[in-house]
Structures are given as structure tokens and as C-alpha cells.
Amino acid sequence: MSNAFDFPGGIYPPERKQRSNQSALIEAPLPSRVTLPLQQHSGQPATPCVAQGDTVKVGSVIAKREGMVSSALHASISGTVGEVSTTQISIDGDGQDAWLRLPPLEWQYAEPHALLERLNESGIVGLGGAGFPAHIKARVVERHTIDTLVINAAECEPYITADDLTLRHYANEVLEGAQITAKLCGAQHIVIGIEDNKPEAIDALKQALTNSQPVPVELTVIATRYPSGGERQLIKKLLDLNVPSGGLPADVGVLCHNPGTLLAILHAVRDGQPLVSRTVTLTGEAITQPGNRWVRLGTSVRELLEQTGLNTSELHQVIQGGPMMGTPLLTLDTPVTKLTNCLIAATLEELPPPPAESPCIRCGECESVCPVALLPQQLHWYARAQDDAKLERYHLFDCIECGACSYVCPSHIPLVVDYREAKSRIRLQRIEATKAEHAKHRFEFRQARLAREEAEKQARKQARQAQQRRPSNTAATNSEKVDLRGLRIAHAAAKASVKKAEKTLARVAQEDPKQSLDDLEMQLATAQENLKAAELQLAQAREQQSSEESS
Amino acid sequence: MNSTIDIIGILSAVAVLTGLGIGFGALLGVVSERFKREDNPLVEQIDALLPQTQCGQCGYPGCRPYAEAINQGDALNKCPPGGEATIHALADLLGRAPEPLDGEAQSEAKVAFIREAECIGCTKCIQACPVDAIIGAAKLMHTVIEDECTGCDLCLDPCPVDCIDMLPRSAPLTQWQPVVARTSNMIASDRQPASGVS
């Protein structure tokens, strides 16, 4: 591979994949009880649509999509609904495993609209880790032209072998899922990116490639290096395209999907089976039967690990996700979600706690391994100083939180923890700023409304006075000098601001039809109220002047 | 001979420069009249830094009037909802010395909540709300739209039956902030003896 097709930085941590990729992918035993959190995807949490005591089958919808970026949730076992809280739904199983499937679709002949609706009602989200709803991702074609579909099978994080095993067992199915997605987004090419440490999966893919129709599929084997599975890094490596900062792969005509997601898409379309289970890598030195399992969503982590021979005395910590980007679980009584790709039950010797943090010595190691070519040490200083303006100028939001900088840091500084904290702090500040701006507009609207009401009151009063005056013909004129010119200018200004608000509204509505326009609509209403008030005042002043002249 | 040329040269130079001066002066004058701004851009900038709760705790009826007053030279420290952060931002913008906050800083974001069973439907709070965040009608129950409420307290005083409480604003999961326990930054050589003793 040439150097031009390469991303900067990267590290070579010990892979430790042998422990979980030796045994075949099998079904985990059916759990007797599942707990399904309402938020298993990015965006808004789902809204429950079942009540306690309801009978559900596998695949029954138990929570509906809420808002634009959200995903439906389905029962993963059959039985009765136990508890419905604001954050999760639990189901007590009846052991029947009775399914409720949707009618199968022939994807070659189905309308794109029907396929999209199927993805939506099947609750499919990206299974690689981010959990972005697949139906929203497929609708990217409404605004972008997609040329290439990339299958991200790099799986660069140590320990994890879920995609590897999925491809070994279901290479044909994954490619069929890719064909469905390519049809939906109009991609002309499909490129598979896979690291060279998965020879069995590569062989399976090579065999499946030949009979994949109709979009041609290309297999690119890349050298093993962390984090080549990052979306931007993989696109750079496979296609030599740079995704712009703050942009999406769709901006360069690429869509990226994980093999697990493609398999789930095929199951949803071909078999009418919603997303109720996923492959999870169970590994670590503290379990005796490591491997990959098909696990029903909502299965307790403790139950799952105990079935694979958990050695409680040896166990130091359980990490959900990979050792680089995953999070240690505080309790084992948490469920497997759509985002759980790996559970590492690690012993103390295997993943020891990091040594105490020392001050930064400015060695620059972090800078040379950063795959996004950021300046991690500068970000570290600014994050600790909470200097948000500098953080944004140093592109904090381009950080993919891969953890390469923390891995090489000789002072053992948890750099990524700092960045995550700073990111969520800045995000909250942005939310607060929008909220303040919104309150300001509402306040302005109220002021304008009060001014209009006042002007109307004045107009009514004047009309009443005029009526009284005409029959009696008394010259009870107002001695106040009318500033007609000033009022005319105010009226013209109000008219101009209404036009400006209308223009802005129309422009924004055209640029981004999905954006919420409430705030702009309110600004327009404010301008209109102001105009009305100015009109009334002007009319009133003119009348007053004419009555003065006539008298 | 040379002196006449010099005088002409001097006079022409003076004339050209005077002409340029008058020309550009007139241009500036015309432009400043033509593109005159009624509003003060500095007031806009000050207003953008204020928290927009429209609470009136500064003594002015809303954030914008206070921004105008600050521009006229009023103190920076009259905004309790903004707290120290706002004072520092204003001091940075205006090049003034920051002053300690006049009043008590708010510990957390709050919103008004009407105990609906006790509400008599007098509409007094609706009239007091600066952002139209209370809905209801005469002799009918009122309620607060939580997302729109700025927590300004202005509805508390007009309520004749004291049925309005200020409650902490509910924080959705999407706004969750990680809690990071920071260890003190000690250099390694200082740390070693302590652990060696124990």
C-alpha cells in the first residue's frame, strides 16, 4: 500500500484476538428476563407503547420512535411486560420464544420507500458502536450523491472479534445486506476494508464476492494498525478521500456501514425480523469459555458472563466495548444493548489500572500517534484550563476519542477523559446559548405585542374622541406636536425588518427543510407586530394632523 | 525664475491636499449619514453576553435595557443569573475591572411550577411572565411550559394564592455531564517518599 493512501499516526497495541476467535459463533441460552433501556441509539430515547402486564412476542414493538433521530425498540423474548419506567422496560419470559415477524420483502423488486419503512420499523441502528439509526443514514441520498458504500470490517480494536466471526459465518448474507443498502443509497461500488489479521474472514469474503449481484464488490486488505477502523481513517486508507472537518462521509460521496448492521438489514428485509439480538464478543482471562454469541438484547451481563464460566475471584473489571474506547462497567447488572459489541472480563494482571498520573513533559508522543493530526498536548492544557475558545480553535470536535494519545503517554495522563469532559461541557454551553437566544426572541415578541396592543388602544381612544368631536364640532385638538417624519421612518424600518425576516426564513427553509424554524418564525412574527404598531401610530398621527388642519 | 515655479508648486500641492481633504471629508460625512445605525453595536454585544432570563433583578425591565445601561456606564455586577462568568465576560469585552457579584449567585437552574390544584385562574402570572411561558385563561387553571421558562421568579410575587414553586430544572439524559474526580497534580518524585513510608 502506498503512503499516499495512509492516515497519520496510529499505534500497535497487543491484539489478544486469539482468545475469542477460536470457537464458532453460537446462540446464547434464552434469558428468562430482559431489561431493555429506551435509549440504545443516538438521538432521542424511544417512547414506551406497552403497559405492565401486556403479553408480547419476540419482535413486538414495545417503544416507538420519538422525533427525527430515534429508533423503535422491540421485545427480544416472548412473555409479559414487567416494569415500564421512564428509562427502561423489562419483560419476564415465558420460555416459548414465539415470534412476531413482519412479512418478508423481495428487496430486488421492492420500492425504496418500502425498504426505508422496513428499516424504520425494524429499529435497526449502526451496530459498530455509535448506534446511529440506519433509516436516517439511508435517507442521506436526499441531500448527497453516494458513489461508494464502504463495509467497515477493519475491527481494529484489540480483543473484539464480533465482525470477524460474523463474516466467517455470514459472508454471503452480509454482502446481500450491502447490496440492499447500495440499492437504497444509489452506490455504484462496494468496497470492503478488512485488516490482514482475519485470514478466515478474508477467505470467506473472497468466495462470496463472486456471486454478489448487481453492484460490483471490491475487497481491500489493509495492514493491521489501530485505529484503521475509524470511519474517516478507513475512507482515507481505502479511497484516499478526506472527510472534511465537521462534515460527514456523505460529503465525499461515501457511506460507511458495519458488517453486523448489514446483516441486521438483511434479516429485517428478507426475513421480516426486527433487531432483537446481536453478536457479542465475550472474552478476557476471567472467563473460561470465551467466544462470540448471538445474544438477545436486554440479557443481563452477569447472566451472560456466568454462562461462559466467570471466575469471580479472578475478575478485576468488566469492560464494555474494546480496551481502547470502551467503558468499565460499574455493575454487572446492566443489560446488553444494541451497542454492546464486546464484554471483556479482565483479571488484574491482564488490564492493570493505569499508574498515577504525572504532569505532562511535552514529549510530543501523543502528537505523533494522533490519527486526526491534532495537537493532543495543547488540547490537554486548554481542557484543564477550561479555555473553550482555544479548544475549538484546536479542533477538539475532530477528536475521535480513539485513545491512542492516552495509550502512549509516558505520564499516564487520561487525555481522552479530559477531551470527553470538555466536549460535553461545550455541548451543554451551546444548548444553553441557543436557549438564551430563544428566550430573547420570545421576550422581544412579547414587547412587540404589548406595543401593538398599546397602539391599538390609542387608536380606539382617538376614534372615540373623533366621533364625539364631530357632532359637537368642538375644537378639542391635541396640542402635542406630531412627529410625522419620525413615525414614517419607523414605519419604513419596520417594513424592511419584516421583509428581512421573511427572506431569512425562506432561505433557511430552502437550505435545510428539516431544521426547526420556530425561532425564525417568531422573529418574523415580532417584526410583523412591530410593523402593525408602527402602522397604527402613523395612521393615528396622520388623522390627528388632518383634523388639526381642518379645524 | 525658480522661485515662481516653487510658489506654483507649493500652491498646487496645498490645493491638491486641501482638495483631497475636503473630498474625503465630504465622502465620510455622506457615508456616515447614509449608513447611519440607530442601534449601538456594542449594546448588541453586551446583550449577547447576558443570560436572557429577563428577570429584572438588575433593576431594569429585561436584559436589553440593562445592556443599554451598561453601555451608559452602569455597573457590571447586577446580574445574579449570569454569575461570575458573565461579569468576567463583560469585563473582558468592555475593558473594565470585574467587580464581585451584587447579590446571591444562583446555585442551579430553576423553573417555575404551578400547583395546579391551588391555582384560581387569575391570569396575574401570565401578565408578569416576560417570555410568555405560562398558558391559561381567566378562571381556568394555568401551567408553565417548562422548556420556555427562564426561571426569572417574576411570577411568584403577583400570585395571590402562592401556588407557584421554583423547582430545579429537569436535565435530560442528552445533557448529562461526566463527573471527573481530579487528582492533585503532583510530580512523581514528590509522590514516591510518601508511598515508601507507608
Automatic annotation (TrEMBL), chain A:
<keyword id="KW-1003">Cell membrane</keyword>
<keyword id="KW-0997">Cell inner membrane</keyword>
<dbReference type="InterPro" id="IPR011538">
    <property type="entry name" value="Nuo51_FMN-bd"/>
</dbReference>
<dbReference type="GO" id="GO:0022900">
    <property type="term" value="P:electron transport chain"/>
</dbReference>
<dbReference type="InterPro" id="IPR017896">
    <property type="entry name" value="4Fe4S_Fe-S-bd"/>
</dbReference>
<dbReference type="Pfam" id="PF13183">
    <property type="entry name" value="Fer4_8"/>
</dbReference>
<dbReference type="Pfam" id="PF01512">
    <property type="entry name" value="Complex1_51K"/>
</dbReference>
<comment type="subunit">
    <text>The complex is composed of six subunits: RnfA, RnfB, RnfC, RnfD, RnfE and RnfG.</text>
</comment>
<keyword id="KW-0408">Iron</keyword>
<feature type="region of interest" description="Disordered">
    <location>
        <begin position="454"/>
        <end position="482"/>
    </location>
</feature>
<dbReference type="InterPro" id="IPR017900">
    <property type="entry name" value="4Fe4S_Fe_S_CS"/>
</dbReference>
<dbReference type="GO" id="GO:0005886">
    <property type="term" value="C:plasma membrane"/>
</dbReference>
<keyword id="KW-0479">Metal-binding</keyword>
<dbReference type="InterPro" id="IPR019554">
    <property type="entry name" value="Soluble_ligand-bd"/>
</dbReference>
<dbReference type="InterPro" id="IPR010208">
    <property type="entry name" value="Ion_transpt_RnfC/RsxC"/>
</dbReference>
<feature type="domain" description="4Fe-4S ferredoxin-type">
    <location>
        <begin position="390"/>
        <end position="419"/>
    </location>
</feature>
<feature type="region of interest" description="Disordered">
    <location>
        <begin position="1"/>
        <end position="22"/>
    </location>
</feature>
<feature type="binding site">
    <location>
        <position position="370"/>
    </location>
    <ligand>
        <name>[4Fe-4S] cluster 2</name>
    </ligand>
</feature>
<feature type="binding site">
    <location>
        <position position="405"/>
    </location>
    <ligand>
        <name>[4Fe-4S] cluster 2</name>
    </ligand>
</feature>
<feature type="domain" description="4Fe-4S ferredoxin-type">
    <location>
        <begin position="351"/>
        <end position="380"/>
    </location>
</feature>
<feature type="binding site">
    <location>
        <position position="399"/>
    </location>
    <ligand>
        <name>[4Fe-4S] cluster 2</name>
    </ligand>
</feature>
<dbReference type="Pfam" id="PF13375">
    <property type="entry name" value="RnfC_N"/>
</dbReference>
Automatic annotation (TrEMBL), chain B:
<feature type="binding site">
    <location>
        <position position="129"/>
    </location>
    <ligand>
        <name>[4Fe-4S] cluster 3</name>
    </ligand>
</feature>
<feature type="binding site">
    <location>
        <position position="122"/>
    </location>
    <ligand>
        <name>[4Fe-4S] cluster 2</name>
    </ligand>
</feature>
<feature type="binding site">
    <location>
        <position position="125"/>
    </location>
    <ligand>
        <name>[4Fe-4S] cluster 2</name>
    </ligand>
</feature>
<comment type="function">
    <text>Part of a membrane-bound complex that couples electron transfer with translocation of ions across the membrane.</text>
</comment>
<dbReference type="InterPro" id="IPR017900">
    <property type="entry name" value="4Fe4S_Fe_S_CS"/>
</dbReference>
<feature type="transmembrane region" description="Helical">
    <location>
        <begin position="6"/>
        <end position="31"/>
    </location>
</feature>
<dbReference type="InterPro" id="IPR007202">
    <property type="entry name" value="4Fe-4S_dom"/>
</dbReference>
<dbReference type="InterPro" id="IPR050294">
    <property type="entry name" value="RnfB_subfamily"/>
</dbReference>
<dbReference type="GO" id="GO:0046872">
    <property type="term" value="F:metal ion binding"/>
</dbReference>
<dbReference type="InterPro" id="IPR016463">
    <property type="entry name" value="RnfB/RsxB_Proteobac"/>
</dbReference>
<feature type="binding site">
    <location>
        <position position="79"/>
    </location>
    <ligand>
        <name>[4Fe-4S] cluster 1</name>
    </ligand>
</feature>
<keyword id="KW-0249">Electron transport</keyword>
<feature type="binding site">
    <location>
        <position position="58"/>
    </location>
    <ligand>
        <name>[4Fe-4S] cluster 1</name>
    </ligand>
</feature>
<keyword id="KW-0411">Iron-sulfur</keyword>
<dbReference type="InterPro" id="IPR017896">
    <property type="entry name" value="4Fe4S_Fe-S-bd"/>
</dbReference>
<keyword id="KW-0479">Metal-binding</keyword>
<comment type="subunit">
    <text>The complex is composed of six subunits: RnfA, RnfB, RnfC, RnfD, RnfE and RnfG.</text>
</comment>
<keyword id="KW-0813">Transport</keyword>
<keyword id="KW-0677">Repeat</keyword>
<dbReference type="GO" id="GO:0005886">
    <property type="term" value="C:plasma membrane"/>
</dbReference>
<feature type="domain" description="4Fe-4S">
    <location>
        <begin position="38"/>
        <end position="96"/>
    </location>
</feature>
<dbReference type="Pfam" id="PF14697">
    <property type="entry name" value="Fer4_21"/>
</dbReference>
